Amino acid sequence: MIANAVYQLKIERFDRTCRFELSWGKGQQLFATLEYPETLTKLYQEWQRIYLSFYKTGLRGRVQGSGSGVVPKVDWHNKLIEAEATFLQAFNRWLRSAELFEIRQEITMSNSGSNATSNIIILLTCYQLELERLPWEAWEILINLAQERPIQIIRTPPNIREGNFSAVRYKQRRKNRILVIVGDDTGLHFQTELTALKSLSRLTEIKFVGWQLEQEEYIIRQNVCQAIADPQGWDLLCFLGHSNEAEITGGKIAIAPNIHLTISEISPYLTQAKQRGLQFAIFNSCCGLNIAASLINLGLSQVIIMREQIHNQVAQEFLLQFLLNLTQFKNVYECMFSASKYLQQEKLKYPSAYLIPSIFGHPKAELFQLQPNSISHKLKQFLPTRNEAIVLSILTAASLYIPLQDYLLDRRIFIQAVYRQITHQIPIQKTPSPTLLVQIDNESIRREKDISNPKPMPRHYLAKLVDKLAELDAKVIGIDYLLHRPSEIEIRDQKLAQSLINAVQKPQPAWIVLVTNEGINGERLTPLPEIVSPNWSLQGEMNLIGGYMQLATPQINDPHALPFSYLLALAYRSNFEVENNTIQPKLQNQREFLIQIQESLKLENKSLFSSKSYLQPFTEFSYIFGQMWLHPVIDYSIPPQQVYDRIPAWKLLNNQISASQKSHLQKQVVIIAPGGYKEAGVAVSGLDFFPKPAAICYWRTDNDCLNQRREFTGAEIHAYMVHHHLNNSMIIPIPDLWTIAIAGLLGKFTLITLNKRDRQHKNQKNSLSKNTLTPKQKEWIILIISGATGYGIITLQTYITVGILLPWLLPSLTFLTYALPVFVRENFHD
Questions:
Q1: Does 229 have pLDDT greater than 70?
Q2: In the CATH hierarchy, which fold is given to the domain comprising 5-155?
Q3: Least reliable range by pLDDT among 86-100, 214-228, 765-779, 786-800
Q4: pLDDT averaged over every residue in the chain
Q5: What are the φ/ψ torsions at residue 677 (nearest 5 degrees)?
Q6: Which of 151, 244, 306, 754 is a plausible cystine mate for 310, CB 3.0–4.6 Å?
Q7: Which among 735, 758, 754, 736 has a CA at the least distance from the CA of 746?
Q8: Which CATH number applies to 165-380?
């Protein structure tokens, strides 16, 4: 929000000269002295005489008699139009004098170029009543500038004794409270205005106080004074009736026929009302200059009055238009400006009437406006503006675009890895790592003379690896090769089948875990029954879903659709963590081995994994929209050496393995898998290569990681998932969309709060030189940076401590969308 340009303009007459003093900012000021044209006073008096002659009946004041006699018929309408034009022409010609050039230029410059402000506010103080009567609101410099920026001219009286204005704390009410004093209606009609005021009852608490026939005079006075000083307080005071100037007593109002109250009489009650929250008053009556000065002197925020006599119908139209704008929650200046504009547009009907209203204000007060009280209005405050909606739409689309989300997730886990290392929060390493990868790499293929074509991998070579692992007493053997088709050399399938049987027949049988896949037509591609039987092996889905965990479904119809990594973890727990486990693979089993395990666990009321290892209904529901809400991610912020060990297949077969590695192998999940040769893949060569996560590049200190991104194998991903299942270390990501919504609400709430505080505490000593940052702007920058940094650290620590991944970038950008308007304000008041 760009700050207002606030000027204090003081005008004082000394005999035949006028002194203009313009001050602004941090002590800047300009002075000018020019001759006051006596013709201006005569033209004003002539306009006033014709004005009163045109509106001679129905005035809300008392006009003295002007003699008797036969008055000829005169076209007062035409005379009034001519008198107004002549007077305003002379008035603006005087204000265009060369002596005022610098003052006009200064005001003009505040409205142009890089120093353009949202509003130009001129606090006008006239030291003589004859100057105060002039229609300064019609100054043409204001009209010209208004074409570019809104202009507000607010009159301030010369004397303001209430210096503790900023300390007044207005009551926070459920509804604004309005007191309407209905005064002497002799010759007037208030019904239209009363009806309009009553319509405000849906937004405000409104009370009417007035006189009644045969009521004693002191009772009428007492009722009005007690109503003003109501202990509950008021926000707005409205007077309808006759009023007039009275310099000594501060003006007077007619509260009943021939019964007047002076402002000095009701000052104690108005002071109490002000202390209880009274901010604004409107006197829809005549000649209110003294009244306005008196009330501002008491400390009210603003007062709207009529400087001249005003016709009853004009007063009605003005109040109707004023209230119409007030119910749209515009401030009182905007309401008065709109109502005056309406009267100007109705010039044929109400000539010169638009020149009569004026607003007086306390220099340090914010402009009063009704506050929405209903829930719907309060909620509307949180609706985004057009620019905010555009930015939020972009950020929302970004939060739903999976490729971008995958990219941000990869970078976020990289930062998490750096944070773990810097803060020494890397998990304590288990010895051994839970998984050993036996990788068939290019060197293994080169050393094996019987492998002429590694696609598909010859079954007899897999058999040799199974035999070696069985020889070393491996308890869990996983094979990350799909065995759904027979090989061209049948004896090789037989060899693998026999190796698997031998491993299961050992006194301490090995658990065999194989992979399945879903075919193009939706059929399940399972290992050949000639090679292995599900009655003594486990078979799980091998497909991977980017950086997300494969999850088991609690109520799944197809046991072969359980994730490969989940079944490996199940085998590990059953062998190494469950005491006296009686369920073991046996060749003579008549039912599927997995079903036996599930029944045994159900019978013993055991659950080997936390609920995070299973697909939750809400996450499954998000799949409908192509999202992965609350789907656990793979935590690559843990160093790979704590997740798995690796050994090339050829080293295993050549016994190039240490004694400690052999003993570790007996307590690990061993996965026989492709180790980086280009032919690896189920249908298309190279499909077993995946983009290397940025965090893995960090842990391995790859200098050229970006050029070697497709060197991460599926088996390594399976190993990470086995680790997470075994450690119940699932990282649950909170959807960016949710945090964007929360950040938007917090940002809007912050913006509303800061704007409210700014309005309540602002003084109007604004500087128009804004080339440097103000202290408040610097504080706001520090606050933004500190808040974003603090939130970032919280998200990093929350990831480690409670396993929750809170997004940082998109919600921070969302909050910045609301913070930026506060930051760019040219002034941020204390």
A1: yes
A2: Nucleotidyltransferase; domain 5 (3.30.420)
A3: 765-779
A4: 87
A5: -85, 150
A6: 306
A7: 754
A8: 3.40.50.1460
